Amino acid sequence: MTLDVQFMTMISMILGGFYLGLALETFRRFSFAWKNNTFLLYFMEICFWLTQSFILFYLLFRVNGGDIRLYVIIASFFGFAAYKALASKVYVRILERLITIGNSIYRFSIKLFNGIIITPIKFIIQFVINLLKWVVKGIIAILTFLLTIIFGPILWLLKKVYHLLPKRVHNILYKLVGLYSTIENITIKVARFLKIKRR
Predict the structure, then answer these.
(1) String of b and e for 115-143 (b: at least 16 CB within 10 Å)?
(2) Rounded to two decimals, what is the model's pTM?
C-alpha cells in the first residue's frame, strides 16, 4: 500500500468516523419513537449498526480495497471524537431546527390537504345526504297527498255506510276484529316458539 493510499485511507476513515457521529446523533434523536418497544428497539439498533458498518467498510473498500489495519480503526475513532468535540452541539441545534421546520411543513401540508380535499368532500357528501333527505320527504309528502285524495272519499263513504248499519252488524264486526287480533297474537307466539326450538 503506497503512502498516497494510506493517506487517503486515514482521511476517509476520519471523515467516516465524523459521519458516524452525525448518524448516531440523528438515530438517537429519533429513538424515542421505538424505545418503549423492546423488540423494535433491538431490531433498530442491530439494523443501524449493520448499516453503518457496511457504509464504512464500503468507503474503505473504495479507497484501499477493504484492507483493515489498526490505524484505520484509530482514524475512525479520531473522526468520531472530532465530531463530539467540535460539531456535536452545532449539529444538534441544526437538527432540532430542521425537525421544527419539518413539523411545520407537515402540519401545513395536513391543513392544506384537509382544506383542499377532505373539507370539500365532506361538504359534497353532506349536501348529497341533505338532498336525498329532501327528495325522500318530498316523495313521502306527494304519496301521502295522493293516497289522501284516492282513499279519502272511500274512507268517508265506508264511515257513512258503517254508521247506517244496524247495531247487530256493529257487534259482529267488533267480534271479527277481536278474533283477528287473537289469531294474530297466537300466530306470533307460535312463530317465536318455533324459532326458539330451532336454536
Answers:
(1) eeeeeeeeeeeeeeeeeeeeeeeeeeeee
(2) 0.59
